[in-house]
């Protein structure tokens, strides 16, 4: 009986160590991804499409709710054009979940932007979206290679003007 107890106790200790190590790894990955997204937010605030793109791989692809799909290179061109029309922007990104397996990771995050357009400076816009991203570990750290939009809503002066999927109802 004592041998069985010893074996079970040993297995429980090993399982606890493995689970703790996995939880610590995922916390570290989550922190790394949050830092990456903070850098993206800072680049958005500077209206720097190339700075945002540095958080992704060169072959990254964005998948939108409407079924549209664009490569990062096209996103850069589109965003640079849109940023030119923007007077000011304040962004916040928040990792909600992250899990890594080796050099691959998946994360869910929310993205919020409050901005004023140059030609509508008396109005304030706010956009909120949720995304799932697939990341790959590179020599420079984690980089996003696939973005999948999960929800999106836009407000103008506090009034909803666009919603593709209700926030919180996934």
What does this structure look like?
The chain has 170 residues and is an alpha+beta fold. The protein has a single domain, classed as Nuclear Transport Factor 2, Chain: A, CATH 3.10.450. It has three helices and seven strands; from the N terminus they run H-H-E-E-H-E-E-E-E-E. Strands 1, 2, 3, 4, 5, 6 and 7 form a seven-stranded mixed sheet that branches. It is globular and about 75 Å long. The chain starts with a helix and ends in a 5-residue tail after the last strand.
Measured as a percent range, the helix fraction is 25-40%
Q: Mean pLDDT across all residues, rounded?
A: 88
Radius of gyration: 20 Å
Shape: globular
Unreliable stretches (pLDDT < 50, length at least 5) are 11-22
What oligomeric assembly is this protein in? Answer: single chain
Nutshell version of this structure?
By secondary structure, the chain is of the alpha+beta class. It is built from three helices and seven strands. It has one domain (2-165): Nuclear Transport Factor 2, Chain: A, CATH 3.10.450.50.
Which helices and strands, and how do they pair?
Elements: H1 2-46, H2 49-53, E1 56-63, E2 69-71, H3 72-84, E3 86-101, E4 104-117, E5 125-138, E6 141-156, E7 159-165
Parallel strand pairs: 1-6
Antiparallel strand pairs: 1-2, 3-4, 4-5, 5-6, 6-7
What are its keywords?
Nuclear Transport Factor 2, Chain: A, alpha+beta, 37% helix, 170 residues
């Amino acid at each position: 009986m004592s041998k069985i107890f010893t074996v079970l106790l040993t297995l429980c200790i090993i399982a606890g160590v493995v689970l703790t190590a996995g939880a610590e790894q995922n916390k570290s990955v989550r922190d790394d991804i949050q830092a990456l997204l903070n850098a993206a937010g800072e680049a958005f605030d500077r209206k720097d499409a190339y700075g945002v793109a540095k958080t992704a791989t060169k072959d990254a692809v964005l998948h939108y709710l409407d079924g549209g799909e664009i490569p990062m290179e096209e996103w850069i061109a589109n965003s640079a054009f849109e940023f030119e029309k923007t007077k000011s922007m304040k962004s916040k990104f928040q990792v909600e979940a992250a899990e890594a397996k080796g050099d691959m990771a998946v994360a869910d995050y929310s993205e919020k932007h409050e901005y004023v357009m140059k030609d509508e400076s008396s109005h304030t816009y706010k956009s909120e979206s949720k995304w799932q991203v697939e990341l790959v570990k590179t020599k420079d750290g984690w980089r996003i290679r696939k973005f999948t939009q999960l929800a999106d809503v836009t407000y103008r002066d506090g009034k909803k003007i666009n919603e593709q999927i209700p926030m919180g109802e996934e």
